[in-house]
Amino acid sequence: MLLPTEYSCIHRFYFNYFWSFMASMSPQEQAEHRRGQRLLFLGLLFAVLLNYPLLAVFDHNGRVGGIPVLYLYVLLAWVVLVMLTGWLVRKVKN
Question: For 35, which of 10, 22, 29, 66 is 20 to 30 Å away at the CA?
């Protein structure tokens, strides 16, 4: 187990490493790096949203407009994933 002083030393090292790494990058490279981090987070978020515990919540006999709730949940989660991914990867021209 890490002691508080050891944790702060390790935390300080990684914090300084990350910021020195980011400072050496151009603004365009920083934007690309942040975009990659956001896409990674989005992928992990949807891996959680489309995994068993949340799917089990919607897996029942209920229907909305004749469509099973589970199918509707998966479809809406997928549509949101596609929209957010498109929003994150589009390039804004100056």
Answer: 10
